[in-house]
Write a structure and sequence with these properties.
This protein has 393 residues and is an alpha+beta fold. The chain has two domains: 208 residues, 2-Layer Sandwich (Ribosomal Protein S5, domain 2); 171 residues, 2-Layer Sandwich (Alpha-Beta Plaits), CATH 3.30.70. It is 41% helix and 22% strand. Strands 5-4-6-3-1-13 form a six-stranded mixed sheet, sandwiched between helices. The longest helix is centred in the C-terminal third of the chain and has 25 residues. It is globular, with a radius of gyration of 21 Å. It starts with 5 loop residues before the first helix and ends with a strand. The structure holds adenosine-5'-diphosphate (ADP) and magnesium ion.
Length: 393
């Protein structure tokens, strides 16, 4: 049995308002921030995210039939559907994540049962810290637990089912990173994930540093069309490079030297897109090495280089993200800073020497708000645990 923390207690209080009786479990799906490896996941490449101490959680109890009823505190709306009759919901958008996850889990062969519960999250929504994965993974654990099938799937299978839900049911063309780290994240560690093989390895987060995340609060309205365009440009690059490099199936297979040798096959724009992805994969590998060697200055330099590459080659930064990164870097204790997530808005992440977190936060509040006339939010999070579930009294 779990001693309730304050947030779970509050969600249980919401449960008591809308149902009779008590919930039996709480399922927790964290958000994430990616240290480095941006726009590499859908190129079969490498990423290095950490799970955050912010999450979406569901308190729930199983039902004996196949009806799923969930109340979302932040939206004040319900998902209420039958597992045998799921259709895209145009009115309650978030319900599609729940339905999609149920649909994708059953496609793996698991037979689910219904549940009733309350969902609540403190991951800022639509800011690139993956509240959607937090919702999916907390829901996946809740559904599997209700059906007494938590052991039926591995963490990797759960992450894949959640990604499939988001791609095929919700209709968002995301890679695997978010669901993977939300499911498998480990306290005190980043995960190096090979997005092709889905092999992963723990990379201890350095004791001498902290993560400071700056939320630009700027609109991401350009993000989804540009995201799809970038994906298409990467595919175009692979198709063109295959003329000279027939063995490749993704940009993950291309080295910087090969890209330079065959750049004449690519339009200038597609070349720059490829240069970002190829270079970024190499920076992930270099970051893992620098972390192992305890060379935090080098990690910071690689993060800075990642940002410049995203800004000038991949062209997914924005005035707000550049202003955020500049504010972070204005503090000497900031080792490196870069945009994180798809870009065009959302958040930037800084690696900061221990003890310098508040100085960086203050610089963000002061300089970013002045530059952009927007009041940002700042989060300081340790590398936290991945998804988990607890029985409640
Ligand atoms: P991000 O994953 O970067 O936060 P997305 O647009 O991918 O942004 O996902 C945000 C969506 O996830 C929200 O619009 C909502 O549908 C769903 N969501 C996130 N948090 C919650 C929550 N606490 N309750 C219900 N739905 C949520
Ligand atoms: Mg998302």
């Amino acid at each position: 049995m779990q001693t309730l923390d304050k947030r779970t207690e509050e969600i249980c209080a919401e449960f008591a308002k809308v149902y009779d009786g008590a919930p039996t479990h709480v399922a927790i799906g964290p958000g994430r921030v990616n240290l480095i490896g941006e726009h590499t996941d859908y190129n079969d490449g490498f990423v290095l995210p950490v799970a955050l101490d912010k999450d979406v959680r569901v308190v729930f109890r199983p039902r004996s039939d196949r009806r799923v009823r969930l109340y979302a505190v932040e939206f004040d709306t319900w998902a209420d559907f039958d597992l045998d009759n799921m259709a895209f919901d145009n009115e309650v958008f978030w319900a599609n994540y729940t339905m999609g996850v149920a649909w994708a889990l059953e496609k793996t062969g698991v037979r689910l049962v219904g549940l009733e519960g309350v969902v609540s999250g403190n991951i800022p929504r639509g800011s690139g810290l993956s509240s959607s994965a937090g919702l999916e993974i907390s829901n996946a654990l809740a559904l599997l637990s209700a059906a007494d099938s938590l052991d039926a799937l591995t963490g990797v299978q759960i992450a894949k089912a959640a990604q499939h839900a988001e791609n095929a049911f919700v209709g968002v063309n995301c890679g695997i990173m978010d669901q993977f780290i939300s499911t498998l994240g480990e306290e005190g560690n980043a995960l190096l994930i090979d997005c092709r093989s889905l092999e992963y390895q723990r990379v201890p987060f350095p004791a001498g540093a902290s993560l400071v995340i700056g939320n630009t609060k700027a609109s991401r309205s350009l993000a989804s069309s540009a995201y799809n365009e970038r994906r298409a440009q990467c595919e175009e690059g692979v198709a063109a490079l295959q003329v000279a490099l027939p063995g490749i199936t993704a940009l993950r297979d291309v080295t910087s030297a090969q890209l330079e040798a065959h750049k004449e096959l690519l339009s200038p724009v597609v070349y720059r897109r490829c240069r970002h992805v190829v270079g970024e994969n190499e920076r992930v590998a270099a970051t893992v090495q620098a972390l192992a060697a305890g060379d935090l200055d080098e990690v910071g330099r690689l993060m800075n280089a990642s940002h410049e590459s995203l800004r000038y080659d991949y062209e997914v930064s924005s005035d707000a993200l550049d202003a955020m990164v500049e504010a972070m870097r204005s503090v000497p204790g900031c080792l490196g800073a870069r945009l994180t997530g798809a870009g065009f808005g959302g958040c930037a992440v800084a690696l900061v020497s221990k003890g310098q977190e508040r100085a960086v936060r203050d610089a963000i509040l002061e300089r970013y708000s002045k530059a952009m006339n927007i009041w940002p939010e700042v989060y300081i999070s340790p590398a936290s645990a991945g998804a988990r579930i607890f029985a409640l009294e």
